[in-house]
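Format notes (please read before filing issues)

Several people have asked whether sequences and structure tokens are stored in separate files. They are not. Every record keeps both together, in the order shown below: the sequence lines, then the token lines. Line labels are part of the format and must not be stripped during preprocessing.
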Amino acid sequence: MKTRGTKNCECIACIDKYKNIWRIRCDIVEDDEGSTYEEFEFKHRPSLDEIKETLLSFYNSKIDDKIQSGFVWKDMPVWLSKENQFNYKAAFDLSIVPVKFKFGTTDEPVYYEFTTLQELNDFYTKAISYINSTLEEGWKEKDAIDFSLYNI
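Then the structure lines:
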């Protein structure tokens, strides 16, 4: 859960010693007014393995969300769900044109018809490039996690 707090927040803290409630924090961004971060609560002191699992799951979800909803092609948002990625790949692999896909958003759908293989190739290679660069960014972000900050 995205939370706002004070500057220099701890990555792990016991917030209620009587109830044994602990919180871990990640994705910390500080500004002049304090900091924002993702926060996860435990009803026990989490082990380092639990912390790693929680943080890596968070970053994996963040990466997946960015892949699914962050790609824009020709000023159109493109939803890159696993199913859509499969459909785009099938059309590309089979060189199927004309082929029509639904882009845009739920509120503002755009139905786009590819009429040339060159245009389909441009779309697909840019989508794959976006997915790969997003994965690489995510790997760097996960590799940069300093788990030593979660040792008490």
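For reference, the curators noted about this record: The helical segments are 48-69, 82-94, 117-143. The beta strands are 2-5, 12-16, 21-31, 34-42, 71-73, 76-78, 99-104, 109-114.
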